[in-house]
Design brief:
This protein is α/β, with parallel strands linked by helices. The chain has 26 helices and 29 strands. The strands form five sheets. It has a nine-stranded mixed beta sheet, with helices on both faces. An eight-stranded mixed beta sheet has the order 22-21-20-19-18-27-28-29, with helices on both faces. A six-stranded parallel beta sheet has the order 14-13-12-15-16-17, sandwiched between helices. Bound molecules: adenosine-5'-diphosphate-glucose. The site of adenosine-5'-diphosphate-glucose has 20 residues, from strand 12, strand 13 and helix 15.
């Protein structure tokens, strides 16, 4: 089995400082407890911040040795950076924004720089440990730059990333000043995982709209590689929780709680103190419930378990005050001697106490305003060995997508929460059991180990896909052979597409004009009488003439409508008509009106609707509609509708680049032919070539070309090597 490196902000073991002495303690949180047995069962190393500064750890050598003996490798972060990185950008910027709290979000360049430094510190440690065959699995929002930083150092690494919090919708994510860096950072991984399909969709949407990368079926075609994104709803260590119920320690705790709670029905609420968890709204709803249901007075208790968290941040301090006030209000208003409606615990509890509370609670009230997953809902369900107990769960927790048998509520709708509490407390036992059994079956099967295994399987299959896609890559060795063939040839023909092949796409077609370097490169080829260069483009002839007219090259415009031989004038391959344009133009105009950012390009014998600058989703939808509409209109004309890279083009049938290429191929006895192209229109050129020719697709994807290169810059660098050799 390949070695695994897990990288997360915190190690599963935390170093605590008490009275000047350092102690090791297990970290709390779903990832550490869930994965601890799984990661120990395989050859793996965990890399993370141990909770105190590097200086202190170095002083205490035996603590460091103990950490290393548990396969935990600490990352050292200075006290200053802990402030701006962990307490700053992580908890004051990314956390609120990603949970859809833009008004709580602080934007600070200083925070961002600390984020970059901390991610670099992690990259240094991981790169120092990683071996070529390792699998690297990075976790959570603290380390979103790390995949890219590592990819730069370990280009071949197998690397996955999992985000434990929600990924926000595009409209929210775009508010972040460093949004593109974060997306590029994440795309350094091979697989990016999220808890739900919705978060995956939000991420892909942002990648498409902000970086302009093609996205299809969860696959991103980034600059030089394919990256996958998918949903993997995190499970819990099911057996740990279900077995805990039988444990004597849990029994003892249960007894202790029973004494305190008497015969009251128990509603349980468990969270870290956080504004995303909707705790005040929950208390208000509970208050309303008591107001409406006098029959439950002295009969129910809300156990409000709140774990202290981020206590130095203003919003958390205010929230704490608000909770204290609300609990006091409710207890003051409804409480009697001997009965307090809210039993408020502000602390972390040992595992068996938590398990005891889960198992005795009649109802779990889990109503976050927004939550990546929420493991409490799953843990509660797992402890219900006899099947009795009701889960009330907010629809905005990732867990709601798997736990549909719970009573699902909108956390902002107090009426709904009140009704849910009434329903839960009156639900027949049989129904409770039926609902829980279905959820338990799912949670037992898709537990945390299954979750991790599925992520690993998908990561490895992504790597395989990447390998298949790069099999055609024109290696340096093959490039040498190509250059050599070219050098030795007597008559060489170069058939070169322009946009997307020699230059990258620009937002507007006119902006993609050739630079001086490219023109010089082409000119150098023309100086050699044994080489003929032909630019085969979809552009109109006037543009090509303007850009390349002064060079001694052949030109093909409008995908083969117009041809110009070296030193000759423009000619058409056959007589074509253009009256049809009067009928089609108004249709395209109405599409421009309804699709902001799109426009029409008119060529002599074709019309093109461009939507590269439109909203990508709208553009794609409108393109589909346009193709249907125009196809009907031109049914009996000698025309075709073709879809290109962010364009829909209407032109005469039988005209294609392959026909134009054939004209040149048949013209002479070439002993070297090279064709370079990037999109579907170039496929006709590739197909027209003799089998001995060198055909190269620029970019990924299926193609009739024999080889591929990843980008226009790689294509021009190959041409440069060729020109130097001649
Ligand atoms: P958290 O925000 O920490 O995690 P959650 O998923 O609910 O939220 O996990 C909390 C964990 O802490 C649970 O395992 C629970 O048992 C434990 N816990 C809660 N109260 C406790 C107490 N009083 N004493 C001791 N332990 C307590 C982030 C995301 C979540 C996502 C997880 C996992 O915010 O949305 O579900 O990661 O991906």
């Amino acid at each position: 089995m390949r070695r695994l490196l897990i990288v997360s902000n915190r190690l599963p073991t935390t170093v605590q400082e008490r009275k000047g002495e350092l102690h090791l303690e297990p970290s709390v949180g779903g990832l550490a407890t869930g994965l601890s047995s799984w990661y120990k069962s395989r050859d793996s190393i965990w890399i993370g911040w141990p909770g105190i500064t590097g200086k202190k750890i170095k002083r205490e050598k035996d603590i460091l040795a103990k950490l290393l003996s548990e396969n935990c490798h600490p990352v050292s972060i200075t006290q200053h950076d802990v402030e701006a990185y962990y307490h700053g950008i992580c908890n004051r910027t990314i956390w609120p924004l990603f949970h859809h709290f833009p008004l709580y979000t602080e934007y600070s360049e200083g925070f961002w720089q600390a984020y970059e430094r901390a991610n670099t510190a992690f990259a240094n440690v991981v790169a120092g440990i990683a071996k070529p065959n390792d699998i690297i699995w990075i976790h959570d929002y603290h380390l979103m730059l790390l995949p890219k930083l590592l990819r730069e150092r370990l280009p071949k690494a197998t690397m996955g990333f999992f985000l434990h919090i929600p990924f926000p919708s595009f409209e929210i994510f775009r508010l972040l000043p460093w949004r593109n860096q974060i997306l590029e950072g994440l795309l350094g991984a091979d697989l990016v995982g999220f808890h739900t399909y919705d978060y995956t969709g939000h991420f892909l949407d942002s990648v498409h709209r902000l970086l302009g990368y093609e996205v299809a079926m969860g696959q991103v075609t980034a600059a030089d590689r394919v990256v996958r994104a998918d949903a993997f709803p995190m499970g819990i260590n099911y057996d740990l929780f279900s077995n805990a119920v039988q444990d004597s320690k849990t029994h003892a705790e249960r007894k202790r709680f029973h004494k305190k709670l008497g015969d009251c029905r128990v509603i349980l609420s468990v969270d870290r103190l956080d504004y995303t968890k909707g705790i005040p709204q929950r208390l208000e709803a509970f208050s309303l419930f008591l107001d409406r249901n006098s029959k439950f007075l002295r009969k129910v208790i809300l156990v409000l378990l709140v774990v202290p968290s981020r206590t130095r941040i203003g919003h958390y301090m205010q929230l704490k005050k608000q909770l204290d006030g609300l609990v006091g209000e409710i207890n003051g208003k409804y409480g009697t001697i001997g009965w307090m409606p809210v039993w408020y615990l502000y602390r972390s509890l040992p595992f068996h106490s938590l398990a005891a509370l889960y198992s005795l609670a009649d109802v779990a009230l889990v109503t976050p305003l927004r939550d990546g997953m929420n493991l409490v809902a799953k843990e509660y369900t797992a402890t219900k060995m006899d099947g009795k107990g009701v889960l009330i769960l907010s629809e905005t927790a990732g867990a709601a997508q798997e736990l549909g048998e719970a009573i699902i509520i909108n956390a902002n709708n107090q009426e709904e929460i009140v009704q849910a509490l009434e329903k839960a407390l009156e639900m027949p036992e049989q129904e409770q059991i039926e609902r829980n059994r279905i959820m338990q079956k799912r949670l037992r099967r898709y537990d945390v180990v299954q979750w991790a295994n599925e992520f690993m399987d998908k990561l490895l299959s992504t790597k395989k896909l990447q390998q298949e896609m790069t099999e055609k890559t024109l290696t340096f060795e093959m490039q040498r052979k190509l250059v050599n063939d070219f050098q030795e040839s007597d008559k060489a023909l170069l058939l070169l597409d322009y946009d997307g092949t020699l230059v990258p796409f620009a937002p507007k077609p006119a902006e993609a004009m050739p630079g001086a370097n490219l023109l010089r490169l082409l000119e150098k080829f023309t100086k050699n009488p044994r080489t003929e260069v032909v630019l085969i483009s979809g552009r109109d002839k006037d543009t090509l003439e303007g850009w390349f007219g002064s060079l001694d090259v052949g030109l093909v415009a409008e995908h083969g409508v117009w041809i110009k031989e070296k030193g000759g004038g423009w000619e058409t391959i056959e007589t074509l008509t253009s009256e049809w344009k009067e009928e089609v133009h108004p249709i395209l105009e109405s599409w421009v009106d309804r699709t902001p950012g799109s426009f029409i390009e008119e060529k002599e014998f074709s019309l093109v609707w461009h939507y590269r600058k439109a909203n990508p989703r709208l553009g794609e939808l409108r393109a589909r509609e346009l193709i249907n509409n125009v196809s009907n209109t031109i049914a009996n004309l000698n025309l075709q509708v073709l879809e290109g890279s962010k364009v829909v083009e209407v032109k005469n049938t039988d005209i294609n680049k392959g026909r134009a290429a054939s004209k040149w191929i048949l013209k002479d006895k070439w002993d070297f032919i090279l064709a370079l192209g990037d999109d579907w229109t170039d496929e006709d050129t590739f197909k027209a070539l003799p089998s001995t020719a060198w055909s190269i697709k620029v970019g990924f994807g299926a193609s009739a070309a024999r080889f591929s290169l990843s980008s226009p810059s790689e294509a021009t660098s190959l041409l440069r090597k060729m020109v130097r050799a001649r």
